[in-house]
Write the structure tokens for this entry.
Amino acid sequence: MTDIINELSGIDADFIALRERRADAVANAQTSFEALLEPENPGDFSYAERYTVAAFVTGISQSGEAAKFYLDLLADESDDALVAAVREAIAAGTTAGPFHQGEFTIFAPESDLGARLAAALDFAHLLTFHPRDADTSAVGHLDAAGWSSDDIVSLAQLISFLAFQQRVVHGLRVLAGSSVSTVSTDKEPSNAAGSIVKTVTNTGWKPGQNTLTPEVVKPGKFVNHSLGWQPWVAPMEKADFTEAHLDSLIKPERIDMPYFRLLARDPAALRARTVTDLDIFYNTEGGLGRAERELAATVASRYNGCEYCASVHQARAKEEGGDADAIHRLLDEGIQADLGSAQWSAIRDAAVALTSTPFAFNDTHVAKLREVGLDDLSIIDVINSSSFFNWANRLMLTLGEPDVPKRFR
């Protein structure tokens, strides 16, 4: 099957060869597409629903070629009425982000979308532009619309994967010098679609019957020590793990971690995602240093507001020889902090741009990365590392919440 990222980015053979230096990441990004968009057994989360979500997410994000690709897949799988409803939803929901504590768009369940898909697009809009604003009520909203625990995990994985895919595609296009359409980075949601949509601050959603509401002590700030994490959707019980579920963990000890037992509800997606992660961050055959990859992960997490991911990856950046004082300033002061070196500043600026829209990332960022000594493989590592944490952060922020361990309270 054609590699979707290569196809959408339009890169030539030389850049494809550079991508292939991270062969597991390339192969498993494609496998993630297949697991989430075209699984052998889609179950209750139908192909038409999956293509609807993908077309909507890429459409509202102003990823023109990707939106057309997914709309074409949807048109092959559904009727004209659903395609028209999705186009209307895209027109209503297009904006930029991510934002924190702001308004976002929700869709009327009585529209041609129906209650189940309307709830999915509500969740998709939240994850795409407001992941930091998610709470147990967002999961409850899906629960109330008939989404099972397994399908909520698959839906969150799909939306989060698309955040990664779009950023890699755009980053590669810029790196390769392809012309990139000018898009708005400050567009507000539109009410042009009339009764299909409303823009809200307070949704009125509530935790559902199957929503977990754990008691946690939230960190309240970005910290330089480890954190726990508690899910809002029930993880799988260890006794229910099959060989496929165990295989999806890659590392057997992860069965003791609620996060991985939760994502194992979609084992094919979890396995592909994990192998992508490992190759992006641990394949050190040329390219960017480990500390710098972890820096990009920490920057994306700091920008997106994911205290848990930032706590993990700031520690790894220091373990790999990164400047601890600079990392602490990043945690304390935010993405504008003085990182103490031109190279780290250039990586930070690129990671912020890719995370923010991602169309803020442009040839100026590529030029600065080259000026501080990064070759094209290293820049691909910056793109991959930053983009991956737009996948990871969204899962952490919308399926559960961080918890301060007792020893740090």
